[in-house]
Amino acid sequence: MDRDFLEQFRAGEESAVKSVYERYGGPVYSIALRILQDHALAADATQQTFINAWRGAGGFDPDRDFAPWLYTIARRCAIDIYRKQTRSLTDDRIDKPVLDPSFDTIWEMFEVRSALERLSDEERQVIKMSHFDGLTHVEIAQQLGIPLGTVKSRSHRAHRRLLDLLAHLEEKWSP
């Protein structure tokens, strides 16, 4: 996205906000659907993502990539909705169909687990708390009793290492 367009978005101009929705609505919905596994909830999360992005647009740094910022908002909105949904359930057991994983899925899971094991203990802990437990960086910092900046740097370093370690899977995931 060009800098002028991002400045218009940051200013909350309606045409820019609409363009952002048209360009990123599909990927945001996909992120939400993957987390929530429910079309109606994913639609709610998508709407909330764009509301939150519009409200927080003034704080967006136009020198950074826009998509990761927006996708982080989408992930957090979906997780928030998921947490609200699971808290409202009265039955502790949820019956979901169990699908036998394919060989490819098992192999990819093995590759991810192997890559996780190659991280340092601190990096692995932050990744697991973030992705498996759904905690924010602030929540991780509170639970571990370490500064927020330390959590962010460990997370960044771990994601970069995982990207390198799992690069061979990229062509399989690319369209």
Defining traits:
globular; 175 residues; single chain; Rna Polymerase Sigma Factor, Chain: A; Arc Repressor Mutant, subunit A; mainly alpha
If you had to describe this structure to a student in words, what would you say it looks like?
This protein has about 180 residues and is an all-alpha fold. The chain folds into 2 domains: about 5-90, Rna Polymerase Sigma Factor, Chain: A; about 105-175, Arc Repressor Mutant, subunit A. The protein is about 75% helix and about 0% strand. It is built from 9 helices and no strands. It has helices at about 5-10, 15-35, 40-55, 65-90, 105-115, 120-130, 135-145, 150-165, 170-175. The longest helix is centred in the first third of the chain and has 23 residues, at about 15-35. The two termini are about 20 Å apart.
